[in-house]
Amino acid sequence: MKLWGVRLASIALALMFCLGLDSVASHQNSFIQRLIVLAGLYVTLAVSLNLINGITGQFSIGHAAFYQVGAYTAGYLATLFFSKSHLTGGAWLFLMMIAGAFAAAVAGLIVGLPSLRLKGDYLAIVTLGFGEIIRIVVQNQQAIGGAYGLTVSPRFQYIWIVWMLAFLCIAICRNLLKTAHGLPFLAVREDEVASSAMGVNVTMVKVTAFLIGSAFAGAAGALLAHFEGFISPQIFKMDLSFIIVTMVVLGGTGSITGSALSAMVLFYLPEKMRDMSDIRLSLLLGIALSIAFAVAAARYVMYNIHGAASKRVGMYAGIVAVGIASSYLLGALFNFAHPLQATVEGAKLRLVVFAVTLIVLMLLRPQGVFAHHEFSWDFVKKLMGRQDVKTTEVSA
Amino acid sequence: MDFPIHLLAGFEFTTLPQQLVNGILLGAIYALVALGYTMVYGVLKLINFAHGEVFMLGAYVALFVSWAFGYVPGNDLHGGTWVHLLIMLVASMTACSLIGVFIERFAYRPMRSQPRIASLITAIGISLLLQYGGQLFLPNSPAPNIDPKINPYQGNVSVTLRAPDAALLAQAETLKKGIAEAKAAYAEQLKSEKDEFNLSPKGKELRTKSQDLERTYNDSVSKASSSALAINIPKGTLIMLVMTLVLMGMLTYLVLFTKRGRAMRAVSLDFDSAALMGINVNKIVTFTFILGSSLAGAGAMMNATFIGGIKIDTFFGMLLGVKAFVAAVLGGIGNIPGAVLGGLLMGVAETLVVWAGYDAYRDAIAFVVLIVVLLFKPGGLLGSAKVEKV
Q1: What is this structure's pTM?
Q2: Residue of B100, B318, B312, B104 whose CA lies nearest to A239
Q3: Contact B124/A245, CB-based, under 8 Å?
Q4: What is the helix (H) or strand (E) element at residue B229, kind and residue range?
Q5: B48 and B33 in contact (C-beta within 8 Å)?
Q6: Rounded to an integer, what distance in angstroms lies between the CA atom of residue A238 and that of residue A242?
Q7: What residues in B contact A133, CB-CB < 8 Å?
Q8: How far apart (Å, rounded) are the C-alpha atoms in residues B102 and B153?
Q9: pLDDT digits over B85-110, tens only?
Q10: Pairs of CB atoms within 8 A across A/B
C-alpha cells in the first residue's frame, strides 16, 4: 500500500511540476519558452541514449537519426492529415508522439540488428553511419522538403507535454533499473558472455534497448517538429549526436540522474554563450593553456598524492583557483601579440565547449560525474548525518 | 528473369574508363589516409577519430607555406617549381607528424589503461576540438585555397583508347571547307551592307547559311569526339599517384625490412607480450603515429595542391577521414596492403556512384559499404576473420 502511495504521489508531483512550469513559462517571452522546451527535449534524448549507451553498454553515436525520424514522421503526417483530422492540438500531439516513436523504433530496430554482431568502437561507427545515411536520404527526398527543410503547419507549444515526456522517459528507465526486468540490461553491459551463459537473451536485451531508446528520441522529435514549426536535415547533423553523447558521458554512463542533469547544464551553458560579448583570442588561448595545465596538475594529484581525500580536495580547489588566475594573466600576456588581439563571437565557442568537456572529463573522470550512481533520498539522508540508512546499491 | 536493360540507358558508357581512372586517383588519397587509421588501429586498437583533422591541419600547413612563398590571393605570381612543391610536402608531413605525436602523447596515452570506449570518446573530443577550435584560429571564411599556379605541371596527359570514328571525322573535314566559303561570301556581302544589324535579305540569307553550316560542323565534331575513347589525366594528379606509390613503397620498406618495423608488427600482434620481450612500446606507438600522420600530411598537401579549386576549411578532413576509415575497414583493419586496396576500391565506388547519376548519395556510399562489410565480412577483404573473445 505504501508503495502505491509513493507512486501516486510522485506521478502527481511530476504532473504538478509540468503544469506549474507551463504556467510559469507562459508569462515569459518566446525565447525563454523555447529554452525550456529544448531543455526538456534534451533531457529526453540524453536519458533515452543513456539506456542504450550507459545501461546496456552499447555505445551508439547516432541518436540524432532517431530524433530526425520522429520529427519528419510527425511533420509529414501533420502536413498530410491534420486539416482532415478534426482533432484538438493536445490529442494530435499525443498521436504524433506515438507515430514518431513508432517510426523511430522501426529505425532503431534496423540499427539495433547489426549491434548483435558488433561491439565497442565498430558499433559506434556503424550507428554514426546509419545516422548519416538517414540524413542524406532525407536530404534528397523532395516530398519532405529535401535540403530546404519542411514547414510543419500547425504549431503546438505545450510545454507541459514536453516535460511529461521527459518524466515518462526517466520513470521508465528508472523502473527498468529498479526491477528484475532491468537486471539483464546491466548484465549485458558488464559481461555479455557471462550473462548469456546465465540465461540472459542477449539479442533480445540489445534490441529492446535500441527500441525503447529510439522510440523516446522519436517522440521527442515529433514534439520538436510541432514546437518549432520548421525542421531541416541541417538540425540533425553528426554534431547533434555528439552533443547528446557528451551529455550522457558527462553525467555518467549508466546514471539517469547524471544524464538528466548534465543534459540541462550542457544545454543551458552554450545557449548562454550565444549572447556573450566577443572574446579576444588572447584570452581564449590563455584559458586553453590554463585548462591544459590544470588537467595535468589534477592528474598528478590524483595519481601521486595519497592519503585522506580531504587533502586532495584542497589541492583541487587550489588548482582551480590558480587555473582561473593564470588564464587571465596569460590572456593579458598574450594580448601583447598583435594577431591575438582579434576577437571572435561567443556563439562560435559552443561546440568547442563540448569538445573540451569531453576531453577533460575523459582525462580526469572517465566514468562521468555521477558514474553509475543515482540520486536517492537515502543518499540525502546519509549526507544529513542520519545513520540508520540501509545502503542500496543498485548498480555497482 | 531478363536484365532490365532500360535501367542502363541513362549511363554514359564512353565516360566509364575516365571515371575509373578518376576513382583510382581519388582512391590514392583515401589509401594514404587509410594507412594512418589502419596502423594506429593495429597497434593501439583505437579508431583515431582525429586522423581526419590531422589531414585538415596538413592542408592548412601547405596553404601557409604557399603563402610564405608569396602565392597569396591577389598576388599574381607565376613560375612555381618542383622545389616549392617539395618544401610544401615536407613541411606538411613534418607538421602533421608532430601534431599526431602530440595528440597521442597528451590525449591517448593517459587513456591507455581505461576501457577502449574512453579512448574513443577522447578521440571524438579531439576531433571536435580541432574542427571547431580551429575555426577560431585558422582562416576559414571565405575558405581559402592553394593557388594552383604554384604547381608548374599544368595540362593533361591524354591516353587514346579508341580513335574517333574516321567517317565522322572525314564528314567534319568536308564541312570545314564549306564553312570557310560561306563565311567568305558573308564577309564579302557585309562590305556592301550599311551596317551589320540591318542586313538586306541577301545578307540575311548568307548569314543564316554560314551559321547553319557551322552548327552542323560542330555537331559532327562532337559526335566524332564522343565516338572516341580517351582518358585525360591532369599532370598534377599523375604526380600525386606517383608520389603515393613512392610513399607506400617507403612505408613497406620501413615496416617489413627494418628493426623498428619488425617491432611495430610485434606490438600490433600482441601489445603486452611485445613489451615483455623488451620492445619500448611507447616509442613504437610514437613511431606509428609519426608514420600515419605524415602520410596524412602528404595526402592533404597533394590533395589541396594538385586538385584545382579545392577549398580548405576546418571540416576539410571530416568526411574524407570517415571515408578513409571505411577504406581501412574494407581492406581489413590493421592490414597495410588492405588499406591500400580498400582506399582504391572506395575511390572507384564513389566515382561510380557519381557516374551512375546518384551524385547526391556520394557521401552515403561510404557508410553503406561500411555497414555491408561489417555485417557480412567483419574482417575485411584481406583481414583475418577472427572472433573477438571477451
Answers
A1: 0.85
A2: B318
A3: yes
A4: strand B229-234
A5: no
A6: 6
A7: 364, 367-368
A8: 35
A9: 999 999 999 999 999 999 999 999 98
A10: 120
